[in-house]
Design brief:
0% strand; single chain; 7 helices; mainly alpha
Length: 215
Amino acid sequence: MRFLFRKQRMVKALVEAYLDNLRNVQQTFSRAIDSCLGDDASCDFRTLVDETHRFESRADDIREEIKTLMYSKVLLPESRGDIMGLLESIDQIPRFFEIVLNIIRTQKLAIPDLLVSDVRELVSVSMEACDLVFRQVEDLFQRGRRIPELLDVIDKKESQCDIIERRIITTLFDSDIDPFLKIQLKELVVLLGDVSDQADRVSKRINIISLKRRV
């Protein structure tokens, strides 16, 4: 029994390492976007894209470590399924970060001045939603009681991002920007909006796992 408790503590420690790494992915992503928006000229966009990829790969490695440990009988089968499903769902968030940065790099996109303020707000609110999801995961493993409260706040952040996203797309198509560029920028904005959508989906999944534990 003591052996099992030790392995469960190892799972918890790995999940904390996984979250720390996701925060690194989030930080480099935010800095890369800041450099695109002209907020931080000292940042090299390409270097930050590479760093984002490196941290995302490290997160994948940690997730595989957690999977291996959990399937060596460290948790009950139903708990293993819940946790692995949760990690797979969270993993979509850094994946969106990478897709956004790769689109900017490969298509050599520049954010037009008329969109900068709204894009900055969309990214800022999306990052707040991600921060709250990470806190929710911590709360789940610490068996805290803030999950419903955070669920509600994340849902509001997601709705706020939807409004900003629609505003950006309206501004974009009301402008005289080249039509092909409009399509490229719309794709980018929709992907940025997917970050908060995914945060909301993860949040709801965490809430379900928490409710199942109380039954």
